[in-house]
Queue: 2 jobs
Job 1
Amino acid sequence: MPINILIAEDQRLLRQCFKEALDANDALEVVATAADGAEAVTMAQKHRPDIVLMDMSMPKLGGIDAAKAILERLPKTRILMLSLHDAPAKVREAMSSGAHGFISKDVDFDELVRIIKAFGEQQKVSSPYLLDQRHIPGEEIA
């Protein structure tokens, strides 16, 4: 059974590229995309993804507020926050939303897939592009 993913990214080209590339992997399935945080919340409720790849900076509702709203409604969904800005304050801000991980957009695509699979399969993961991650009691992610 593939890992279901929602991509929340305001840049259309990047959103489409993520979708095409992730859908090419048999272990992953993009079930929906969203162009802003409000749409991400709606699509998450509709499609109940295993993982949300959430851009931190989006219109209408930012990634942090969208992550909080999604996790309030779907606490088992894992949020992986994506951002170009990897200053420690931004990472802390993202993690305070309840996000399960913060990934630099400088990540190599194969490494992104490896991180997504590990989170989806509740395995431990280590990566120089995974700048922070939250441990969930009772789960294997460290």
Job 2
Amino acid sequence: MTTHIHILGIAGTFMGGVAAIAKAAGFRVSGSDLNVYPPMSTQLEALGIELVQGYGADQLDLGPDVVVVGNALSRGSPVIEAMLDRGIPYTSGPLWLAEQVLQARHVIAVSGTHGKTTTTAMLAWMLEHAGLAPGYLVGGVPSNFESSARLGQAPFFVIEADEYDTAFFDKRAKFVHYRPRTAILNNLEYDHADIYPDVASIRRQFNQLLRTIPGTGRLIVNGHDAELATTLSAGCWTPRESFGLAEAAPPCDWTARIAKDSAASRFTVHFKGAAVAEVEWGLIGEHNVLNALAAIGAAHHLGIAPERAAQALNLFRGVKRRMEVRGVIAGITVYDDFAHHPTAIETTLKGLRARVGAHRILAVLEPRSNTMKLGVHSAQLAPALELADKSWFLAAKDLGWDLQGAISSMGDRVSLVASVDELVRALAAEARSGDHVLIMSNGGFGGLHDKLLAALRAR
């Protein structure tokens, strides 16, 4: 008899990926979410997955054998209370995946505050390009694949290893469940202020991850990240290789020399001082070069030569919502980017500035993430936007801090706008041919991208 799993929070990228993998593995899958709408709803329905709107207790009448609980659910939700009252078996998405799929695989985990999604997509594509048909779960939509997750073939499974908490009953980081044999540590900064009080508490979760990686495995570590160095000093039992830009100190095992005036779209890869590959691709920015080095280092541990990995990168088309061009109207380019942490905002702007030179960059931000709403990084916002010619913020109603005061040093280079419609009008009036409009949010931003493109067409 086929085991029936019911997934709470199925419309999220991670839990939707778990659903797709479970279906491919032969389970009967149903699920629910507060808002199940296209494209996720159509993707799930096409897989034959039963969907329920909302978190009412009556959905448990479907009779699942086990409920897989997403980390958006908490005590007090009707479905959670009914699940506990009825004694229905339950687990978390990360633990279900670990027990049902990852246990039999060579897991490659990609961790870090920034760059996880892009690096995971790169590495999965390197394995695919090498003919290995890996399983993968990416926290975004990789353009080289048809979906964000798949079961794939043994032995390899590439997973984005998120440090966010697992579920209401398990406050450990998701990644402690995955038991990787190869792991990337991309960087470490303070984030997720809604669940971690300080960066030391995040380091402790990374240290838990390190405790699960075998001595016959491999760590690929950013050699210039001080927080990672502190984490490793607390205990590391696995051989490691470092990566970094060639000009930076200390020297690393995997380095890159970026071609002059290329905006990091061309670079040479070196391993232990010897040139081993050339990359010429469609991505820009030093942060993406570092992502690429990490992926090449991990692929090397899996038996893929750096030259072969570089060939895959030359064909890598990126991830949706990472500097994704949404349209070009009358010489005005509109981008969609997931950046919502000051470091990500700054590195994204740095990469775009290297590409566009003296052309104007108009930066638009929605302070939507839980960390942003708590104001933890408020003092870093103005410096992060230094490379933008003008900036706009959507004034979120639920901010508990003084955004206007935090950005006051930017003077007339910044505006605070009350609504998406007002933002569209302001940008349509300001933008001119040659401008680059960079829209940054970890949400949908009220459909700003399409509304702005429509307004530009109508001018």
